[in-house]
Write a structure and sequence with these properties.
Shape: globular
Structural class: alpha/beta
Number of strands: 9
Helix content: 25-40%
Distance between the termini: 24 Å
Low-confidence stretches: none
Oligomer: single chain
CATH architecture of the largest domain: 3-Layer(aba) Sandwich
CATH topology of the largest domain: Rossmann fold
Mean pLDDT: 95
Bound molecules: phosphoric acid mono(formamide)ester
Amino acid sequence: MKNLLSAGQITRELFKEIYSSALSVRKALREGRKKFSALRGKCVVNLFFEPSTRTRSSFEKAGKFLSADVINISTSVSSVKKGESLVDTVKNLDMMHPDVIVLRHPCEGAPHFAQKFVRAAVVNAGDGRHQHPTQALLDCATLTEHFGSLEGKRITILGDIANSRVARSDAILLKELGAEVFIYGPSPMMPRVPEALGVKKLNSFEEVREVSDAVILLRIQLERQNAKKTFPSIREYAELFGINRKRLKELRPETVILHPGPFNRGVEITGEVAYGDRSLIFPQVEMGLAVRMVVLSLLCGRLEKLKEEIQ
Ligand code: CP
């Protein structure tokens, strides 16, 4: 695999390899081992045209833990501000011989386009509403660890599906791993053709309760909403679609809650649910670091080296 651009590239076999390696990496990190040499001599560039906390910092930590040189480019203080294009930016960075460029961009397809102009491997760290493949990896890894297997599991993605790259990426990989995927949320936030995503639309919270082994909550993507308002008010959204203590009790007791973050407290989730014992939100973040260490090693042809090191 030269680049990681879409969750559609991840087969069951590849997921199994990434998942088992990520568990070993996480165990090593939990034991306090924080320096590995697998990417010594390699260089990772983080190029983010949109804000990020988890993805950017975990790719940075992943590169540093693996002994790569890591360059972080914040576009707000780069020559992008002077009008430099995406292609010119990545072409110039590529001339500095990075091995991986991790790219987040508001436009769908930007990483697919950029990879044509560079020698470095490109990781899509989120492109508009389209894809976020490492989020799908970490979500499916977290769920696989919780359930043992995703075969036959029923997962509901709840919220602003139409604007969500997480929903699109998760749906692809969850199905590849044998799960059944449902969506629920306000009608204007639903995709026009749910079947095109291979998911089934639910029509009530009672149906969510009935089917869900896990619920993945999504943030309302205000930055991607068009001028037409797609919901009446935040308060009404929270009442009808948010998960608070009362709503959590309405779900089956074994149903777990995930969220890619950042979550908006009191809108799609309350603080007590996010920090509660049925939440996998913080395990997701820890898994994200391990998964990204594995992905960087894989793209640099150093996964075997990393596996030897963490044995
Ligand atoms: N889940 C996720 O992509 O979070 P960030 O936007 O903070 O990277």
